[in-house]
Amino acid sequence: MNRTRIIIVDDHEVVRIGLRTLLARQPDLEVIAEASHGQEAVQRVLQLRPDIVVMDVRLMGMTGIEACREITTAAPGVKVIMLTSYGDDAVLYDSIAAGASGFVLKQLGSDDLVKHIRTVASGGSALDPASTTKVFQKMRAQARQRAEGAFAELSDQEVRVLAKLAEGRTNREIADALSLGEGTVRNYVSAIFVKLRVNNRAEAAAYATAHGIKEFV
User: Fold this and answer.
1) How far apart are CA 178 and CA 172, in angstroms?
2) What distance in Å separates the CA atoms of residue 165 and residue 4, rounded to the nearest whole number?
3) Has residue 48 got a pLDDT over 60?
4) Is the pLDDT of residue 66 over 90?
5) Alpha-carbon distances of 137 from 2, 124, 209, 212, 215, rounded to whole Å
6) Fewer CB within 10 Å, N side or C side of the chain?
7) What does pTM read for this prediction?
């Protein structure tokens, strides 16, 4: 059996001992080293090339997030799972931006932690349900902000017409869907072309799709 090779990083020895004891019970997991701070973690990773690093977010000196960024840049094949005692939104987003494959609260049960490690080892991502919800909420908010900028010159009705156009609907179908006259829709479409600086329906539809109009309407 190929065992998943793990490095544990935490500035509290008791935590490292607890994690090592927990993982030692698993036949498919192997702790090959420990580190007590970020710089040591980076050095151990570059020396030993583990499969996974389980690392505390809050470390003395170089933070866990900074260490994660260095590790995922220098050794992209190594997966990092961030451990934290606090479900801080900013820390969650910064961890993911730094390349972490998992973000797990220390309060999580031992069986769930082992399951998350196996998920990451198999190429997946590990987030607790609350963190997953926050990530998707932020992604939706960012998409909407981008969309608002992309369609800033359009009126609300023009945005609705463009959304239907992007679905491949004809002017008649758009008119029926929005309770408008077909001539009115035609005028809206012409105005959309001018404001978006596109030449035809295909270009308008491509622009709308590329800028996430579905997140906007």
Assistant:
1) 10
2) 50
3) yes
4) yes
5) 37, 20, 20, 15, 12
6) N
7) 0.61
